[in-house]
Amino acid sequence: MDNKPKIDYVIYVEGTPERVWQALTDPGLTAAYWGHSNVSDWQEGSAWEHRRTNGSGIADVVGTVVASQPPRRLVTTWADPGERGGTEPSQVSFVIEPYNGIIRLTVTHENLADEAERDEAARGWAAVLSNLKSLIETGHVLSARPWEMP
C-alpha cells in the first residue's frame, strides 16, 4: 500500500467519541448523512456493506472490518462488489480522538488505484464528512446533498 495514492482528511466535531462512532456504524445515521447505510456487526473479520437507501438492497461498496476498537478506531477494506480477484481493495481508517469536548476525526483512505480515484475519494470524503459534522452538531444534515454539488 505504500506506493499507491492515499488521502488523509481531518475534521473537528463537537461531540463525544461514542456519538461519532455511532454516526460511522449505525445504518440509520449513515443513511441520513451519507445516502447509504453502512451495515455490519462491526466485529474484526466481519463483512460490511455500503447499501443504497432506495430499498433495492444494492451494495455499492463492500469490504471487511480489519480493526474495530469502539469508540476510537475503525478500519475497513473497500471494494466494488463487481470486482473479482486480482485487484487489492483500498482501505479506510477512522481514528476518533477526544479533546476537551471536541473530537478530531481522521479519515485515511489508502491503496487507491490512481490519482483520479484519489481525487474522486477526496471530493467524496469532504462532502460526506461535512454532512456527518452537521448531523452530530445540529441534529440535521445539510439542506442539499453536498456530493451532488457541481
From TrEMBL:
SUPFAM superfamilies: Bet v1-like. This is SRPBCC family protein. Coiled coil: none annotated. The lineage of its organism: Bacteria, Bacillati, Actinomycetota, Actinomycetes, Micrococcales. Belongs to the AHA1 family. Residues 16-137 form the Activator of Hsp90 ATPase homologue 1/2-like C-terminal domain. Pfam families: AHSA1.
